[in-house]
Design brief:
With 79 residues, this protein is mainly α. Helix content is 68%, strand content 0%. Helix 1 (2-22) packs antiparallel against helix 3 (51-78). The longest helix has 28 residues, at 51-78. Pfam families: SecG (PF03840).
Length: 79
Amino acid sequence: MYNTLMTLFLIDCVVLIACVMMQPAKNDNDAMSALTGGAGDLFSRRKARGFEAVMQIVTTICGALFFILALALVYVSSH
């Protein structure tokens, strides 16, 4: 059981890293927004569509699965 959970956990880790790396950048501003705090982007939020929406959902699912598998591994290893 422990080996199966560990294998699933490692696969989920790799998929989660890939999902995070594939997400498009949230802003297309230059370094000046980092200095000014990016206040101009405060009200320009838009809903994610297409590829962005799919990647957000997949990343959320992989993140939740990461924590569930981590807790399951802790439980199995302690018993």
